[in-house]
Design goal:
With 121 residues, this protein is mostly beta strands. 0% of the residues lie in helices and 55% in strands. The strands form two sheets. Strands 2, 4, 5, 6, 9, 10 and 11 form a seven-stranded mixed β-sheet that branches. Strands 1-3-8-7 form a four-stranded antiparallel β-sheet, with no helix packed on it.
Length: 121
């Protein structure tokens, strides 16, 4: 069974930085696209950043220039480095990944349980 576990959330002041991590565990043969989403209170979940196996990345306009995403396939981990944080970045951040557990079968999409990020003075 595949699991995604996020860590690194917390309380930070405006202008501060945080790094989120998400580790995949379980029966894993390959990992495809990995991404971060977030959901603020009363709002729908939204895309934040994504990274492909090739290293290609894309970002939501609201975080461009402030956030960066990276991955370490040996560690089965994806990171989200967040800088110049704003109160509007307050949300639960979720990890998402396409993971294959069996050779020859299609990748399945998985979600983590989320980690809270609060930006406040």
């Amino acid at each position: 069974q595949v699991q995604l576990v996020e860590s690194g959330g917390g309380l930070v002041q405006p202008g501060g930085s945080l790094r989120l991590s998400c580790v995949a565990s379980g029966s894993i043969f390959s990992i495809g696209h990995m991404a971060w989403y977030r959901q603020a209170p009363g709002k729908e979940r939204e895309f934040v950043a994504g990274i492909w196996r090739s290293g290609a990345r894309n970002f939501a306009n609201s975080v461009k220039g402030r956030f960066t995403i990276s991955r370490d396939d040996d560690k089965k981990t994806v990171y989200l480095q967040m800088s110049y944080l704003e109160p509007e970045d307050t949300a639960v951040y979720y990890c998402n990944a396409d993971i294959g557990s069996v050779v020859g079968e299609r990748l399945q999409n998985y979600w983590g349980q989320g980690t809270q990020v609060t930006v406040s003075s």
